[in-house]
Design a protein that fits this description.
Number of domains: 1
Structural class: alpha+beta
Distance between the termini: 24 Å
Radius of gyration: 14 Å
Helix content: 10-25%
Strand order of the largest sheet: 1-4
Strand content: 15-25%
Largest sheet: 2 strands, parallel
Number of strands: 4
Length: 76
């Protein structure tokens, strides 16, 4: 998924992704406009061999990804 998004011109920010790219579950988020949804794959099939990655972000985030408020402030 990361490779596909990077090819589409998405700016990867945050932290380096895992090397495993075999995702099995979809996560959907309503965009702030309320006019559309963004879908991404979340769960990983650990029994599958890694094919791509890891991917290092263009803009790294060294904070704790579990701190949603700090992450939101950083990304803005």
């Amino acid at each position: 998924m990361t490779d596909t998004l990077l090819r589409l011109g998405v700016l990867h920010v945050g932290q380096t992704t895992d090397a495993c790219t075999d995702y099995t579950e979809v996560r959907e988020e309503l965009l702030p406009s309320g006019m559309s949804w963004f879908s991404t794959l979340q769960a990983v099939a650990m029994e599958m061999p890694a094919e791509l990655g890891p991917f290092a972000p263009a803009v790294p985030y060294d904070g704790d990804l579990r701190d949603t408020a700090a992450l939101e402030q950083w990304i803005l």
